[in-house]
């Protein structure tokens, strides 16, 4: 495994571990998700450059578009949660009380 591939794999794994183990605030979960999407985007971009195939060149742009949609939906949920509950702590959220 090359150092470049190792760094993107480590970045994705660290984002996943942060999402799994450090679930205190909704904002920290969203930042971990964005870090994972960023590492996937860069890895997919490098993969398409290494293959030198034009057929796969739209895949990183589609991933980036879905990542932007995910970020906007996450921020909208963060604002709505902060307005209704007064905080973004994940322990205070209960889907049964909505």
TrEMBL record:
Upper taxonomic lineage: Eukaryota, Metazoa, Chordata, Craniata, Vertebrata
Q: Per UniProt, which keywords does this protein have? A: Electron transport, Membrane, Mitochondrion, Mitochondrion inner membrane, NAD, Respiratory chain, Translocase, Transmembrane, Transmembrane helix, Transport, Ubiquinone
Q: What membrane topology does the UniProt entry give?
A: Multi-pass membrane protein
Please name the top-level EC class of this enzyme: translocase
Please provide one cellular component term from the Gene Ontology annotations of this protein. Answer: mitochondrial inner membrane
Transmembrane ranges, per UniProt, are: 6-22, 29-49, 61-80
Q: What is its EC number?
A: 7.1.1.2
Q: Family, per the entry?
A: Belongs to the complex I subunit 4L family.
Q: What does this protein do?
A: Core subunit of the mitochondrial membrane respiratory chain NADH dehydrogenase (Complex I) which catalyzes electron transfer from NADH through the respiratory chain, using ubiquinone as an electron acceptor. Part of the enzyme membrane arm which is embedded in the lipid bilayer and involved in proton translocation.
The entry's protein name is: NADH-ubiquinone oxidoreductase chain 4L
Question: Where is the protein localized?
Answer: Mitochondrion inner membrane; Mitochondrion membrane
Pfam families for the chain: Oxidored_q2
From the UniProt record, report the name of the gene that encodes this protein: ND4L
The UniProt entry lists the main location of this chain as mitochondrion
One Gene Ontology molecular-function label? oxidoreductase activity, acting on NAD(P)H
